């Protein structure tokens, strides 16, 4: 273990620097990643006025002007989501922060086939917030390496790097059948999409290969309520449970999820663990209460869900945690319904 890694871990333990989520992706290749982002921005930010003989009205796919207008449309599309990011968090009301998010999401979308999808801004936001807090609360006495590590001038670069690492495992859940977005980020009409989403297939496999054998009663009850896995599961996996737990729990939750690497080989255990943790609420005879519990299950502590996921993954090594007891199921469901009513206004 390098001295940098030891020192960073020591600072984490002392509570002086919140690097729980970020360290693993940064150490050793920071400058390479930052240079890569600079090169990517330079490559995709060409001024169409510099292209001799290109017509601003050209519809040729190779036209720099056409790509320029498509880029503007894509950035506007991303901004519509970004301005709604965490409305109760003052940091994300800053126009400079919003522009940074648009840039990161835009350059990622332009360099990946899947393009931009609604929800990606909610994956980027917690990462950006952690990087910002790392810098804001860093000790004043730092070695030169850590000063480089926490250089505020590279907040955008490091956000892109971390977002790209996270999306290695999430990207497949954002694909939409066999559809490919246009350069402006628009998808073709649904009638032109011929194959099911990967995320739908993934959730169906979780139900058929795991949930039915683990808890047939729960799986059957969800069927009777006409609640399919995709109804709630798409949001769960695409946002990495970002709306299912309070924001301050996300660094701990995502550190746990990414402990086995960015490809998320054991994400299905988290889906199963959250379902089983909510079992008491999900067996309610009222389908409305069941759906509400699935859409806002933040009453379950993240530590309990993680412990249950570990047990499901390796029952011999990790004992099953005691069931989580909801103090008042009726009041809890009423609260969930009122929260959903507020959200849909």
From TrEMBL:
Origin superkingdom: Eukaryota
Pfam families referenced in this protein's UniProt entry, alphabetically: RabGAP-TBC
One MF annotation (Gene Ontology) recorded for this entry: GTPase activator activity
Rab-GAP TBC domain span: 55-261
GO cellular-component term (any): cytoplasm
Keywords: GTPase activation
InterPro entries given in the database record: Rab-GAP-TBC_dom, Rab-GAP_TBC_sf
UniProt KW Glycoprotein keyword: no
Family annotation (PANTHER family): TBC1 DOMAIN FAMILY MEMBER 5, TBC1 DOMAIN FAMILY MEMBER GTPASE-ACTIVATING PROTEIN
Name of the molecule in the record: Rab-GAP TBC domain-containing protein
Species the sequence originates in: Pectinophora gossypiella (Cotton pink bollworm)
Classification of source organism: Eukaryota, Metazoa, Ecdysozoa, Arthropoda, Hexapoda
């Amino acid at each position: 273990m390098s001295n940098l890694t030891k020192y960073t871990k020591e600072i984490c333990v002392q509570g002086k620097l919140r690097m729980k989520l970020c360290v693993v992706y940064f150490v050793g290749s920071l400058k390479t990643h930052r240079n890569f982002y600079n090169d990517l921005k330079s490559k995709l930010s060409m001024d169409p006025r510099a292209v001799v003989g290109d017509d601003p009205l050209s519809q040729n796919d190779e036209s720099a002007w056409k790509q320029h207008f498509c880029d503007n449309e894509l950035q506007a599309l991303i901004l519509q989501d970004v301005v709604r990011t965490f409305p109760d968090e003052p940091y994300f009301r800053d126009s400079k922060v919003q522009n940074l998010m648009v840039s990161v999401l835009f350059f990622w979308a332009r360099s990946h086939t899947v393009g931009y999808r609604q929800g990606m801004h909610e994956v980027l936001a917690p990462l950006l917030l952690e990087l910002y807090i790392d810098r804001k609360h860093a000790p004043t006495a730092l070695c030169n390496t850590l000063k480089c590590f926490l250089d505020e001038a590279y907040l955008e670069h490091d956000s892109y790097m971390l977002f790209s690492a996270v999306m290695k495992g999430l990207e497949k859940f954002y694909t939409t059948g066999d559809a490919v977005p246009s350069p402006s980020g628009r998808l073709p009409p649904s009638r032109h999409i011929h194959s099911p989403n990967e995320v739908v297939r993934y959730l169906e496999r979780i139900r058929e290969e795991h949930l039915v054998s683990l808890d047939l009663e729960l799986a059957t009850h969800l069927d009777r309520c006409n609640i399919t896995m995709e109804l709630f599961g798409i949001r769960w996996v695409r946002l990495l449970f970002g709306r299912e737990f309070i924001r301050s729990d996300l660094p701990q939750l995502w550190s746990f999820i990414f402990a086995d690497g960015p490809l998320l080989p054991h994400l299905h255990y988290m889906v199963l663990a959250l379902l089983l943790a909510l079992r008491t609420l999900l067996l309610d005879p009222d389908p409305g209460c069941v759906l509400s519990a699935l859409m806002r299950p933040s009453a379950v502590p993240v530590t309990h869900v993680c412990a249950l996921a570990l047990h499901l993954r390796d029952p011999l090594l990790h004992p099953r945690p005691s069931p989580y007891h909801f103090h008042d199921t009726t009041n809890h469901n009423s609260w969930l319904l009122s929260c959903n009513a507020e959200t849909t206004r």
